[in-house]
Amino acid sequence: MGLQQQLAEYFNFDELGTDLRTEVVAGITTFLTMSYIVIVNPSILAVAIVNGPGPDIGRSLPEVQQMIAVVTLISAAVATLVMALYAKRPFGQAPGLGLNAFFAFTVVLGLGVPWNTALAAVVVEGIVFMLLTAAGAREYVIKLFPEPVKFAVGGGIGLFLAIIGLEAMRVVASDPATYLQFSPVFAQDPVAVLSVVGLFLTFMLYARGVPGSIVFGILGTSVLGWIVSTLGYSAYSVPDDAGFVLADASLSPALDTLTYSAAGYDISPLVGAFLSGFSNVDAFAFALIVFTFFFVDFFDTAGTLVGVSQVAGFLDEDGNLPDIDKPLMADAVGTTVGGILGTSTVTTYIESAAGVEEGGRSGMTALVVAVLFVFSLAAVPLAAAVPIWASHIALVAIAVLMLRNLVDIDWADYTNAVPAGLTILVMPFTYSIAYGIAAGIVSYPLVKVAAGEYDDVRPGHWVLATAFVAYFFVRTGGVLGGAL
User: Fold this and answer.
1) pLDDT grade, residue 262 (50/70/90)?
2) 125: pLDDT confidence band, cut at 50, 70 and 90?
3) Is the separation of the CB atoms in 20 and 5 below 8 Å?
4) Residue from 139, 122, 97, 417 nearest 305 by CA
5) Distances (CA, A) of 147 to 344, 364, 406
6) What sections of 212-324 are H helices per DSSP?
7) Distance between CA atoms of 231 and 461, rounded to whole angstroms?
8) Which one of 77, 87, 390, 479 has the minimum C-beta count within 10 Å?
């Protein structure tokens, strides 16, 4: 039996209606759209580790960035490998954006918690996740999600992806009056113009039914950027007094963004640093930090799994993902391993939707992503080979396609429209999947009871709604800061 046939049998290609070529293309697509984290995660965490409270790591900022890049690659590879071989789902995993910012800027630099103690909180969170997953508690909670919220998650994630993508493409810019606006220098900015050209090229290839259309769109746009840069053009630089902000970008790939040295590969100062983080810890304050990490990661992961699975057609008639405990366990293992190695919480990436749209349906897609993360250890991260603005055209393309899932919602029923609508709107505008789910879950029992539809409300709905209210009180009411 050949390797290709063995892979087909192990990953159930025939049952899922896929093949090896499709899965490989899907894996490459997912990797290209999420690999920016290899550059972004070190830039966020290194500042907290070098400048924040905690043990002196004895390395310069560039060296710590390189160390965290290595840790990011290893933790992403391990977590995604578990997803591939155990859960057999096409989802990529890596240290999560938002969670790493909370780790660095709020917990370490803002509240003055030593960075090794913050890592200890991540490890505890991961262990708690594993125990709850093994007991079936996480799967039970996700099944409690009201049906309109489950069906709305995909559309909300789509809008969320669109904002992320359009911002990276420099099509939109911040504005002090309206918060967001069309770039006022669009026609002067080669990055923005090429991004839109690449986006429409991707749409055309997809409409034509070209296999790997998203990959071709990303790579084709990257090549255009390189050609234009050789002609002497560069990204538009915003004057200090312009009154708007564009995302940082360059036309050509920044292959020297991270040049590894021997010190960069020595991650021993980070590995196991969490153990010393348990000393001299205030139990109540530590528990609040763990609770915050836990809450956001739980619902971010749940929302991503449900939303991307809806695109893939994995959900059953009740909106549930069969055997969801397996991808949840992969997420829990990834978080635990990441904390032990020295990075913030690992989570399932919404960019996995890009690979799913390319036809990825099995763990083979995730296996390709994991292998590419491993290969990236050998040289400058492959993320640097493609400009972020070029890779993010995939997010906008996927966002448009994910909106089609909104037809599953019964918009004529106001008690379904309210929680679904809030879920969809709050996600992009708060930049959080978890907050969108919170809006839907809190509103669902309220509008159902107001309409007299008591039979549709279960005690678990009230428990979830109360838990979210408690979370927001801890997160935004100054409780966490007051405990430290």
Assistant:
1) low
2) very high
3) no
4) 139
5) 31, 30, 12
6) 213-230, 262-265, 283-312
7) 59
8) 479
